[in-house]
Amino acid sequence: MASFFGNLFSFLTKRPGAEDVVAEHVIREHHQGRTLTEILQDDYVTNRVSAEQVAQILDRPEVIHAVGDDVIAAHHGASS
After folding, report:
1. Is 24 among the domain residues?
2. Its pTM surpasses 0.90
């Protein structure tokens, strides 16, 4: 019975997957001024996810939004 309830509510304590952690890393590092190419070549990224998973991470709306916002902000700063 205890294992049943443990499994039933396991989603509440589920740790983030590798893709989630790497997506957060990409966003954080990009906000600090690093290029996407540099970040994706990090051992932190390459040791945690495959090339297919990187492609999935780059398709995430939050990653697209973060990287795109930084590119747009840089463009506006350069044109001022």
Report:
1. yes
2. no
List the one residue out of 75, 65, 60 whose CA is nearest residue 30: 65
Amino acid at 13: T
pLDDT digits (tens, 9 = 90+) for 43-73: 999 999 999 999 999 889 999 998 887 776 7
Domains: count for the chain: 1
The domain of 70 spans 16-79
Say how far residue 3 (Cα) sits from the centre of its chain.
33
Residue 3 belongs to some domain of the structure:
no
Q: Give just the sign of the alpha carbon dihedral 73, 76, 77, 78.
A: positive
- Alpha carbons 62 and 66: distance in angstroms, whole number: 6
